[in-house]
Design brief:
The protein has about 290 residues and is of the alpha/beta class. Helices cover about 40% and strands about 15% of the residues. The protein binds NADPH dihydro-nicotinamide-adenine-dinucleotide phosphate (NDP). The site of NADPH dihydro-nicotinamide-adenine-dinucleotide phosphate has 25 residues, from helix 10.
């Protein structure tokens, strides 16, 4: 059984990104710049943005944090995004979620220039992924794909079951696994809260991806012996500890490979955001190296 170590892999990929950023800087005379908008004082959002900021620093990407008051209206926020869209020094823009209920999240995310949309949430970028010609890949599914590729986990012809159909994880993950490419060519089943006979479906998976948001939801009985199990979930327990969507201690006894939480998919998400920011900077200056 292999524990799929996302933490070490993230270190390795960040080293590669750091080298590419340096080469980009030498070729083009600029550093990539990521602007992160954070609205209100949600403590979790602050931690996420601060991790992104640290990641940027580590690889030589400049970050700008725009902390906005939670009384901001949708129109005011869209106008801030327009300023960033029009600023040639900014290459990547992200809006940290969740946004206050008063904000129209879809309109706000749609306002980001698709060429600066490093989270790959814009409908244009989702459309490009669906057609198999991605500009950016969404960070968490991208991290899962890299984790599998770099650990030699073959998806070609495999039955992948994804539990979760969110726009951020489940749906784009399914689209990516379907593509005719390395890291794709899978037979994909997507399950969700309305799925009947879930355990029967998950126990047929060669690769099971859990993106549910429910602590230790995937139990031993739901997993086929020898399966690869990827746990995207991050759940904070009452005692403050973090756990995934999979009952790791039991499932690891029958899995062929499994991601831990923490230390699995999590560290890769921010890493792929850094890579997308470099891609956005290259795109902005027409650098195709
Ligand atoms: P969402 O809440 O948007 O989606 C959860 C999905 O799980 C939904 O499709 C929902 O179904 C499905 N679901 C919920 N309960 C059940 C159930 N009982 N049986 C089957 N399916 C169920 O969450 P996200 O996709 O945003 O995130 C999922 C998890 O991944 C969370 O723990 C989140 O914290 C974590 N996460 C981790 C990241 C990382 O970097 N590692 C990044 C992003 C998320 P339905 O659609 O029917 O409601």
């Amino acid at each position: 059984m292999t524990i799929l170590d996302g933490k070490s892999l993230a270190v390795e990929i960040r080293r590669e990104i750091g080298e590419s950023v340096e080469q980009f800087r030498i070729r083009c005379g600029i550093s990539p710049v990521l602007a992160a908008i954070i609205v209100g004082g949600d403590p979790a959002s602050r931690i996420y943005v601060s991790n992104k900021e640290k990641g940027c620093k580590e690889v030589g990407i400049e970050s700008r944090i725009l902390q906005l008051d939670d009384s901001i209206t949708t129109d005011e926020l869209i106008s801030k995004i327009s300023e960033l869209n029009n600023d040639p020094r900014v290459h990547g823009i992200l809006v940290q979620r969740p946004l206050p209920n008063s904000c129209n999240e879809k309109s706000i995310l749609d306002a980001i220039d698709p060429r600066k949309d490093v989270d790959a949430f814009h409908p244009e970028n989702v459309g490009l992924i669906s057609q198999g010609r991605p500009r950016f890949l969404p960070c968490t599914p991208y991290g899962v794909q890299e984790l599998m590729l770099r650990n030699g986990i073959e998806t070609d012809g495999k039955h992948v079951v994804i539990v979760g159909r969110s726009d951020i994880v489940g749906k784009p993950m399914a689209l990516m696994l379907l593509q005719r490419c390395v890291g794709g060519n899978a037979t994909v089943t997507i399950a969700h809260s309305r799925t009947k006979n879930l355990a029967e479906i998950t126990s047929r998976a060669d690769i099971l991806i859990a993106a549910i948001g429910s602590p230790r939801f995937v139990t031993l009985e739901m997993v086929k012996r020898g399966a690869v199990v990827i746990d995207v979930g991050i759940n904070r327990l009452l005692d403050g500890k973090i756990c995934g969507d999979v009952d790791f201690d039991k499932v690891k006894e029958i899995a062929n490979a499994i991601t831990p939480v923490p230390g699995g998919v999590g560290p890769l998400t921010v890493t792929m955001l850094l890579l997308n920011t470099l891609t956005a900077a290259k795109l902005a200056v027409g650098d195709d190296k």
